[in-house]
Amino acid sequence: MNDLVSEIHRLSKKIKRQVKFMEVCGTHTMTIARSGLRNLLPDNITLISGPGCPVCVVPNSYIDRAIAISNLDKTRILTFGDMFRVPSSVSSLEKQRSNGAKIDIVYSPLDGLELARTHPDETIVFLGVGFETTAPIVARVIKYAEKEKIKNFLVLSGHRLIPPAMEALVSSPGHNIDGFICPGHVSVVIGAEPYRIFAERYGIACVITGFEVCDILQSIIYLLEMISEIKEKSVYIQYSRCVNKDGNITARKTMYDVFEPVDSEWRGLGIIPLSGLAIKDKYSDFDAKKIPVNISSYREKKGCLCGMVLKGIISPFDCKLFGKQCTPENPVGPCMVSSEGACAAYYAYERR
Amino acid sequence: MCLAVPMRVKKINKNIAEVELSGIRRNIDISLIEGVNVGDYVIVHAGFAIQKLSKKDARTTLKLFSEMKNGT
Amino acid sequence: MPMKDDKILITYGAGGRQTRNLIENVLLKYFKDPALRLLPDSASLSIFKSCADICFTTDAYVVKPIFFPGGDIGKLSICGTINDLAVSGAKPLFISCSLIIEEGFRISDLEKILMSMADTAMLNSVRIVTGDTKVVDSGNGDGIFITTSGIGIKKKGLSMGIDKIKPGDAVIISGVPGMHEISIVNARENLGFKSNLKSDCASVYGLVSKVLSSSNGVKFMRDPTRGGLASVLNEIVSNRKYGIRIYEEKIPVTEEVSFFCEILGFDILNLASEGRVVMVVDRNDCEKVVSIMKKHSSGKMSSIIGYVTDELPGKVVMKTKTGGERFILMPSGRQLPRIC
Fold first, then answer.
1. Is A48 left (phi over 0), alpha (psi -120 to 50) or beta?
2. pTM of this structure
3. CB contact under 8 A, C256 and B26
């Protein structure tokens, strides 16, 4: 590892100027923060976090809707653990559970389907949150539900696609991203092709990266080599032990059989064209969006700068609420409470 | 989307495989990948296998992982 | 930090920051006895000046599932109370047991639990001498809740306490942390993982008394239950002029535990143990203490994990394997298994 760090220092001395690399995967955010890796890098390299936390990027309206559904009779919400404590406009799933709502945490949407089988008198609504790693899995489970004609299993889709968000970031003027540390397991599914546009049209170096510290250090080396033109600027797969350039075609087919890309709102980034996944008409029986609920117009909390943090424009330290009104016990926005949120990572792990 | 670890396939029954790592076992769904055999390593995420790894690549991942996580 | 909610949330029982908040802001408003000042695991009470202090403790056990790999609520209720006395430097002697049983609970399950309690007590030479039993309507309890209180006699001449800790002191843990919570979460949340991992539920009295009879250098002990090692370390430094630095590579861990934490997204430092002890020991004695612990069956993986330092008042930091440093905060909420 010391060799990798020395190499980074050597390459960055040659480059001289400030370079900014963005990672767009919550687990990369956490690995970087937990390992204290930033302390090892030279001053001219800045690592920033982008919208890589799938729970943080869904707007409050999604959770508000989930909460409204949880208040319905004979209805049970199932969610990944990540969503449980995220605050929305008025409440959180955790608080709702303390008020008696039926809300459970599951490891896999298959567990949700099993619950639907064993509790035919309950409507089971699974909160489908996650990027391209998770969406094919949820799609597969919807297909099982359809095949078995299970009538009481529905999914509230909050799934989103990473490359459109990355493009929204770099097509806004004044961005200063020199390179992307691309997500590892999203890329297992989508392969390398979707990132090509960043290298070819925008001149941004891209490296698909694994999750160990030395993976990230190796990727930083490749990014620096591309910037200093030792290597040609393109999409490089550092995580080659898991990712191949074509991705997982079966998983993608399954995902696009059930879901279709739609314009979607991302917290802090606004509406990004064709960046979210909605359940197609042919599977509308499983779409929880059709459940009629009243949600009052949602709002982001005053002073909450999660959106700016997600865009990588500011670091969590720059937010006035950080560590004061907004802490892990009393989070104002999702970035502080999500296990992959940049603010949670900085609060817990970064030296001040 | 990234908490996924390589695990070894011990048994297969149609769409379900029993996978194992360091004594931890689980049944997972393998319908999203092709050509899985007993003895293969797969990346497991939310109850599904999303990728098959060569033995060499699996060992590299596990070795890296071990080096970083294991203490005394 | 003032309370923000007007209702109890489930995370207030998790043993971390929120639990501490509840205790400091609500409970201590009404319970002001000096014995509670340092919120010890058990109260040290002096009745006659000529006699050794009596230690008195109580704990409620609400674990779900009731039967788990490595034990059950009965064994847990006896070991937990023994351990609270042991880490206060007392020999556990007498235990009381109060049962709150839900209507409809199987008598055969009750018998299994009672047998477990009796066996555990006998093995550890403590007497269950009084108790109470209540039954509540079905739907009002998780099958069974058990509260045990314990009395022990403190070893004479012991001078331990959080006030005795100084920069330079060593921090020792007696084994791999978190195995109890991992085995419980896996069993309870139907996460579907099967493993050989068992709860570490056990008495630490044997190990502790061996150490205390061989060394005068032990300044403080606690068993890292809810909130884990992170919680104990933060309690030690809270409002103090010193901090603690621990070393990631020194924390005992097994491959199985690491992988479980990785798969479920847990931080091992925040996970509860029910058969481990954390000690703060004088620097001059720490090597001797850890070598005594390693020779004991309950302490084979004991390790000096770090030191008290005057550099970081009120903080706990960990030097990571990559050479970086990060804060270890008081855990917040429960460890929720996450997937991403």
1. beta
2. 0.86
3. no
Cβ-based neighbours of A84, under 8 Å, separated by 6 or more: A92, A93, A94, A103, A105, C336
Q: What is the pLDDT of residue A140?
A: 98
Residue type, C219: K
Token digits for A109? 């949407």
- CA A308, chain centre distance (Å): 15
Q: How far apart are CA B3 and CA A343, in angstroms?
A: 19
pLDDT band at C206 (very low <50, low <70, confident <90, very high): very high
Q: What percent of chain A has pLDDT over 70?
A: 98
Can you give the length of chain A in residues? 352
**Amino acid at residue number C110:** L
- Strand intervals (E) in A1-89: 19-23, 45-49, 75-79
Residue B52 Cα, gap to closest chain A Cα (Å): 8
pLDDT of residue C299: 97
- Beta-carbon contacts of C29 under 8 Å, excluding residues fewer than 6 positions away, are none
C252 contacts on B by Cβ (under 8 Å): 71-72
Task: Give the model's pLDDT for residue B72.
Answer: 33
Range 110-139 of A in CB contact (< 8 A) with C? 111, 130, 133-134
Nearest-10 crossing angle of helices B55-69, C255-264: 100
Give the whole-angstrom CA distance, residue A85 versus residue C298. 37
Cβ of C251 within 8 Å of Cβ of B25? The answer is no
What does the pLDDT look like over A182-234, one tens digit per residue?
A: 999 999 999 999 999 999 999 999 999 998 889 999 999 999 999 998 888 89
A110–chain B Cβ distance below 8 A for any pair: yes
| Burial tier of A74 (Cβ tally within 10 Å: 0-12, 13-18, 19+) | exposed
- Whether the CB-CB separation of A50 and A311 falls below 8 Å is answered with yes
Strands (E), chain C: 43-45, 54-61, 67-68, 71-72, 90-102, 127-136, 144-154, 170-173, 218-222, 243-247, 278-281, 303-309, 316-319, 325-327
Q: Chain B: which residues have CB within 8 Å of chain C?
A: 1-3, 5, 21-27, 44-47, 65-66, 68-72
Q: Which two tokens stand for residue C59?
A: 């704990």
User: Hey, is the C-beta of C31 within 8 angstroms of any chain A C-beta?
Assistant: no
- The tens digit of pLDDT for each residue in C70-109 reads 999 999 999 999 999 999 999 999 999 999 999 999 999 9
* Nearest residue in chain A measured CA to CA from B35: A250
Residue range C296-321: mean pLDDT, rounded: 95
Alpha helices in chain C (DSSP H): 17-22, 28-30, 73-86, 107-123, 179-188, 205-214, 228-237, 255-264, 286-295
